[in-house]
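Pilot study result, target chain (387 residues):
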Amino acid sequence: MHKWRGCDTIKELFLYVKVGLKTVKIAVLLSGGVDSSVALALLKGQGHDVKAFYLKIWLEDELSFLGSCPWQEDLEHAQAVCKQLGVPLEVMSLQREYHDTVVSYTIAEVKAGRTPNPDILCNSRIKFGFFLDRVGAQFDAIATGHYAQIRCDNDGMRLLQAPDPVKDQSYFLSHLTQAQLAKVLFPIGHLIKKEVRQLACDFGLATQDRKDSQGICFLGKLKFSDFLRCHIGERVGALREYETGELRGHHKGFWFYTIGQRQGLGLAGGPWYVVSKDAAKNIVYISRFYYTDDKKRNQCLVDTLNWINKPALPADDLKVKVRHGAQIHHGRVAAEGNTVRVIFDQDDQGLAPGQFAVFYRDGECLGGGTIEETLVTRGRIDSQDCS
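Predicted structure:
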């Protein structure tokens, strides 16, 4: 049997989650990429009873817009890996479910001038929602190629960050529940990307040289701007200077712009930054003076909270992510009714309503919610303000 780093860790995880079981029946979600392929190979190599699933979520709108079937190449790679490993593969359509949850949410948020995160809903509602509901009774666990770790103790399931701070995907998993996490496995969560690539080469997998997907959710080649153009279209509007209201140019729809954006404005005399958006009037406000006090963002109110493990509040020792990646803020977090107020120890000029704020302590993802409002604190922050 091929020896790989961390196999004992995965076995120990099974013992935590499924007490007394040494070989379990696992449904593995394959995207056609290297990460999920290695996850499948690891579990198969341990002797578990595995079946692979490819989720088809593309809709005819996207396919006609792009003029091709971009999921076909992903499926072919998934089929090749399954053939190599001798694992059965089932293609499951969740197209309508995806449209009614992830697509409709994304369009509604963008039209309201907010910044959505389709990946978080794709995980909580599709992969570990509809898919888990459909096949969960047939399998002991559902496995994916996410970079995150799960542990179980007397207080329940815990979602932990991966050792690779850049690839860590706990942010995207922050809306999972205890019940979902109790059924989930992340076989490569303890590895860094370089190690996963090496394992793919060692196993000789057909996906070993595939590039990482850059699209929303696991839509691969579909850029977010193309997604918006397909579903919302274009509408000419004004680019106005924030300080003066002066017309500086035109755009094709405020929904193509995010707060803090610098690239793609096409204006001379910059750099110019997107400061705010008026959804009702289709106006994008821009400024060359993005870091002045009247534009700093260092507070937010967070709603629609999902706590995996709820901390005692107020708390000064939490860290907060407002987007995927290695950047993480220190902040003070305090309850305000059904929301929480977060005061960051430094400004985040890209902070915008609709983003997800996700809370961490000592490498554990505690949960998160949606930013409803961004605020500015001028001068010294008084800790009593959030008591």
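One observation from the pilot: The mean pLDDT is 86. A full batch analysis is planned for the follow-on phase.
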